């Protein structure tokens, strides 16, 4: 296992938690928006709303991958409404955004196999920070989900893009985590599932990086080639992988 001064930063989606429940979450979100629109007197069809909802991910990707920021849930809801030609009062928009945000608690993803036990072991030897890019589910809600799964206790710092205003691979996403832990990049390791955000970002600030391939990444984000210092396919490999990197 790594020595006591080691700092490990870890991604959330498809690294600690999978993305299961997404279909149900999105169905519930669309239904909430449709109900709010109907209450406001808009006759938008399910097809119109579906098209607006589907197109929001192209908007999200531009902000995330090109501008290294992630739109908040209220921003995304407002953009969906704009695209669907729906105008809702601010109070209603805020209520819909809150429903969108908390959907991850009502239809939660699952902890990945071995993650909880591995985090417990890591936390006994290293200081841990979470670095997560967010979308409809803000950092405050993801913290709550982690608490419900008894894994938040293992982390000394939480860096969420909706709270910091920057998303991976922006260097500040990683620097803020290191600063929160009072550590430098030397000897620090990041674990994440995406080459362009997790691996490129960590390597860009001088950290070592482990690519987690225990979950198949969404096709449009997947990359075969990697510059990671190591690759792991299951959380039971983390101790050996860190030992190899830090020896």
Which CATH-level-2 architecture of the largest domain? Answer: 3-Layer(aba) Sandwich
Rg estimate, integer Å: 19 Å
Low-confidence stretches are none
Please describe the biggest sheet, giving its number of strands, its sense, and whether it closes into a barrel: 6 strands, parallel
Strand content: 5-15%
- Overall outline: elongated
Q: Please give the order of strands in the largest beta sheet.
A: 3-2-1-4-5-6
Total count of strands: 6
Q: Find the structural class using helix and strand composition.
A: alpha/beta
CATH class of the largest domain: Alpha Beta
Order of helices and strands: EHHHHHEHEHHEHEEH
CATH fold-level assignment of the largest domain: Rossmann fold
User: Helical segment tally?
Assistant: 10
Separation of the first and last Cα atoms: 10 Å
Query: CATH homologous superfamily of the largest domain, by name?
Result: HAD superfamily/HAD-like
Q: Taking all residues together, what is the mean pLDDT?
A: 93
Percent of residues in helices comes to: 40-55%
Give the total of domains.
2
């Amino acid at each position: 296992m790594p020595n006591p001064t080691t700092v490990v930063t870890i991604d959330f989606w498809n690294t600690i938690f999978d993305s299961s429940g997404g279909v149900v979450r999105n169905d519930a979100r669309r239904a909430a928006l449709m109900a709010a629109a109907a209450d406001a007197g808009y006759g938008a069809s399910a097809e119109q709303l579906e098209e607006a909802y589907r197109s929001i991910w192209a908007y999200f990707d531009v902000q995330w991958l090109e501008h290294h920021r992630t739109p908040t849930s209220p921003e995304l809801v407002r953009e969906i409404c704009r695209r669907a030609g729906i105008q809702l009062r601010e109070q209603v928009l805020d209520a819909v955004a809150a429903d969108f945000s908390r959907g991850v608690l009502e239809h939660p993803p699952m902890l990945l196999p071995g993650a909880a036990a591995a985090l417990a072991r890591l936390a006994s030897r290293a200081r841990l920070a979470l670095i997560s890019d967010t979308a409809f589910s803000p950092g405050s809600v993801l913290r709550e989900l982690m608490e419900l799964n008894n894994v938040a206790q293992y982390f000394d710092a939480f860096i969420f893009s909706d709270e910091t205003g920057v998303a991976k691979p922006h260097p500040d996403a990683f620097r803020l985590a290191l600063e929160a832990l009072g550590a430098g990049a030397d000897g620090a390791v990041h674990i994440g599932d995406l080459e362009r955000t997790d691996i490129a970002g960590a390597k860009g600030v001088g950290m070592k990086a482990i690519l987690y391939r225990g979950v198949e990444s969404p096709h449009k984000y997947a990359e075969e080639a990697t510059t990671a210092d190591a690759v792991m396919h299951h959380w039971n490999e983390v101790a050996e992988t860190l030992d190899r990197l830090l020896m």
